[in-house]
Amino acid sequence: MDLDYRLQMIDKRLERVEKILLIVSGKGGVGKSVVAATLANHISKEKLVGLLDLDLHGPTLPLLLDHVGRLGGQKDGVNPVTAGRMKLVSLGLLTVEKPMPLKGEVKRDLIIELLSEINWGKLNYLIADLPPGTGDEALTAIRLTIRKSSAILVSTPSPHSLGAVKRMSGLLVDEDVKITGLVLNMAYMVDPHRGVTPFGKYNAQEIEKKIGVKIIAELPLDPEIASSTPINMEKLSSEFHNGLEMIYQAVQRSI
Amino acid sequence: METLGEIEDLKGVDYMVAIREGRFKCLKCGHEWDFKDSVKSLKEFSKETYGVEEPEGLESPLHFFPQLITVFMKCPKCGSSDMEVAGGMDTVIERAILEDQ
Lengths: 255, 101
Known about the structure:
The complex is a heterodimer. By secondary structure, chain A is α/β, with parallel strands linked by helices. Chain A has one domain: Rossmann fold (3-Layer(aba) Sandwich), CATH 3.40.50.300. Chain A has helices at 5-13, 32-43, 61-64, 92-95, 104-117, 136-144, 159-174, 204-211, 223-227, 238-254; strands at 17-24, 49-53, 72-74, 77-79, 81-83, 86-90, 123-129, 149-155, 178-189, 215-221. The longest helix of chain A is centred in the C-terminal third of the chain and has 17 residues, at 238-254. Chain A starts with a helix and ends with a helix. The model of chain A has no long low-confidence stretch (mean pLDDT 92). By secondary structure, chain B is α+β, with helices and mostly antiparallel strands. Chain B is elongated. The relative contact order of chain B is 0.21.
């Protein structure tokens, strides 16, 4: 019997969550949180969606989403805040702009706490924005959610980012995590710089061969995302919306 | 204790509980201090950030995420944010006395 009661609580908290989507990357700065936030928004048009920010050092989801309420507790746990049609939990809601100098074991502990204390209620999808890389906190989150999860890898087409994402996909395979596919983010520009590929020309088939994971969507670098917080979904390009729909379709196929 | 009491194997167990105060150590200057020495700065942070002096008890984020305590505090001696919890955060079983049945 495991004496850490929180590990038993995780199953209870996630009991009414049908599917967990882990948004992962090999390194930071590839737009993982943007993909998590916009995908959650897209799916929430027809499903019940929760969004969990597990990026402990750089929680950005509160910046990307228009949210109301304050993260607070009750006797039986912590209730998410509301962000449009979604439920949102992020430590950024508590720490605001304070630096978060957290040590290794503390980070692992916080991940367990976040998974064991939140009252999500019924959700069709819980989308978890994981910390970048293959560190302790990412591993902990992956292991503790494995029964309901599948992973969506996010990378730019840059060789540096792809090298890191290959390491991450290797880790996911070793941990027996189902992989839905790879999203190439910031792959090309939309108007007024249409045709520009900011990370250079790339060959999607070669990338798939190298990483060993199918590309499920190529998202553009949309100036709207860089220029607005929170993200205004209505102002995003049709290419971006189409990309989100392709990711969602891949998710549905993988279930 | 209530949760433990619900576990079949632990029914009928008597517990002796000792409360240890939270203690912190600065990793920059080595200074150690007690939680009570930081209460004032925590209240100030809470007022500045949330608009209330101190969200009490269950309302406090620290109730559910005590690991964040080092985010909200600074070393009272040198002002560094680099610190660790030196004691008093976890619930630990220090000793178990077993009797033959």
